[in-house]
Amino acid sequence: MRREKKIRIYIAWVLIMALTPFFVVKTFHHHGSEETTSCSHSDTTHNPCNDCAVCHFSLSFFTQPQPVNFHPILTLIPYEPFTSQDKIVCERTYSHQLRAPPVA
Fold first, then answer.
1. Could you tell me the pLDDT band of residue 1, with boundaries at 50, 70 and 90?
2. Does residue 8 lie in a domain region?
3. Is residue 13, in this structure, part of any structural domain at all?
4. I need a labelling partner for 97 at 20 to 30 A (CA). Which of 1, 14, 80, 88 fits?
5. Does residue 22 fall inside a structural domain?
6. Distances (CA, A) of 81 to 44, 54, 86
7. C-alpha span between 25 and 5 (Å, rounded)
8. Is residue 16 one of the residues assigned to a domain?
9. For residue 79, is pLDDT > 70?
């Protein structure tokens, strides 16, 4: 039991150390704000993020789905709680006496 727990902790640390560098590099990676012009003589500009391997890197092997936009419409209905102290709301349906199995 104790050895299995140590192995699980070890595997968790290995996974954290293996996956953390990807996210750290991608978080702090940025390109300069200046845009460089393309070598061609056209008027298009070339952004270094278009060819950057770090910007396009992802650990998922599937296509990201489009986010779902949910706009709930709530209608407010005025509600006033009604309290009445004249009526008994609930009655006990069980006996107040303690009951045990019969003694042999």
1. confident
2. yes
3. yes
4. 88
5. yes
6. 67, 59, 16
7. 31
8. yes
9. yes
Q: 37 CB contacts (<8 Å, ≥6 apart)?
A: 45, 46
Domain hosting residue 10, numbered range: 2-31+45-56
Task: HSE, CB side, 13 Å, CA atoms: give it for residue 20.
Answer: 6
**Tokens describing residue 9:** 């902790």
pLDDT by residue (tens digit) across 31-68?
A: 776 655 555 555 555 566 677 877 777 766 666 678 88
Max distance between CA atoms of the chain, in angstroms, equals: 105
What HEC string does 12-45 produce? Answer: HHHHHHHHHHHHHHHHHCCCCCCCEECCCCCCCE
Query: Residue for token digits 């407010």?
Result: 76
- Under DSSP, is residue 2 helix (H, G, I), strand (E, B) or coil? helix
Q: How many domains does the chain have?
A: 1
d(CA 9, CA 3): 10
Residue 28, amino acid:
F
